[in-house]
Every structure is written in C-alpha cells, then in structure tokens.
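tokens incoming
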C-alpha cells in the first residue's frame, strides 16, 4: 500500500477487524523509520491522533 500518497488528505480507512475510521492523514512513517518496522499513517480522528499500521489496514480511500 502506498500510504504516503494519502498524507495531508482526508481519508476513510477500513481496518482488518471491520472498523471504519475517517480523519485527516497528518503524517506517514516508513518502515525503516518506525520501531515496529511497518509503514504507518498518523491520522487525526475527531481531534485525537491515531497511528494505523499497514498490516492493520484492509483498504483506504480519499473522502
């Protein structure tokens, strides 16, 4: 998944557990810069920052 394409955009993310979250993608962190060694996207969800790892994401789209 090319998560960096969604930075600074409003997104809707479907997680592998079936949850759907929407918010503003604030930042991207590559696997090489991340302690978990997995690409991630930092998303502001209702004023709360939340990091979503690529292996948690089933699908992502722009809103």
């Amino acid at each position: 998944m090319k998560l960096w394409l969604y930075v600074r955009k409003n997104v809707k993310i479907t997680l592998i557990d079936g949850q759907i979250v929407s918010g503003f993608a604030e930042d991207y962190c590559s696997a090489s810069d991340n302690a978990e060694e997995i690409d991630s996207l930092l998303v502001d969800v209702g004023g709360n920052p939340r990091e979503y790892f690529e292996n948690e994401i089933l699908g992502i789209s722009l809103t």
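note: The radius of gyration is 11 Å.
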